[in-house]
Amino acid sequence: MEAHIDLRAATAADRRFIEDMAVEAFNWNPDRASLSREKVLSDPQLNKYVIDWPREGDSGVIAVGPGGESIGAAWLRFYTAENPGYGFVSEDVPELSIGVVAGWRGKGVGTALIRAVVATAGRVSLSVERANPARDLYLREGFRSLSSDKDADTMVRD
Ligand SMILES: CC(C)(COP(=O)(O)OP(=O)(O)OC[C@H]1O[C@@H](n2cnc3c(N)ncnc32)[C@H](O)[C@@H]1OP(=O)(O)O)[C@@H](O)C(=O)NCCC(=O)NCCS
Question: Where is the N-acetyltransferase domain positioned along the sequence (predicted)?
Fold first, then answer.
């Protein structure tokens, strides 16, 4: 059975934590040189996932640990055809980003976050590298692969 995990809606005050979780998401592969927070926040291909949080249309969920600390975040943002996210499928389909603080992974936090953030959304997309074990989690939570390139899949959930 999964442990109970406290969740709350993300607000403007969560910007820094959401930025941290975006850095975690880009650095999922421990065998690869990690991208610094500064790099993620200054590179337009990377910072588009978090810049100006919260923008109109953004929504997110924060998982809260026993001491009230933030332990994970999942958020949805819309992108444009001119400036798409990696998992872009359409301007009216938001893309999911997710990260859980390292010491809290594998305990059901990510599952709870995904369920909460998609609960009120229609179609949602995401991009995941094929080697990332997060792909299995997405499959389990109802995402299917829509298109693939050499290393990554674009997945959607209806
Ligand atoms: C992916 C991630 C958000 C999942 O959150 P989580 O709280 O670890 O997930 P849960 O405990 O609810 O589910 C566990 C499942 O997630 C997947 N998973 C992915 N990365 C994992 C990790 N580092 N540790 C444990 N499980 C992981 C596995 O499929 C696992 O299933 P299993 O328990 O049968 O092996 C989290 O592990 C994380 O932040 N990873 C690094 C950043 C990342 O990869 N973000 C997504 C980029 S597309």
Answer: 5-158
Q: What is the pLDDT of residues 7-51, one digit of tens each?
A: 999 999 999 999 999 999 999 999 999 999 999 999 999 999 999
Shortest-distance Cα residue to atom 36 of ligand 1? 100
d(CA 115, CA 28): 21
CATH at residue 31? 3.40.630.30
Instruction: Pick the atom of ligand 1 nearest to 135's CA.
Output: 29
Count the domains in the chain. Answer: 1
Ligand 1 residue neighbourhood (C-beta within 6 Å): 24-25, 28, 98-100, 105-111, 128, 132-134, 136-137
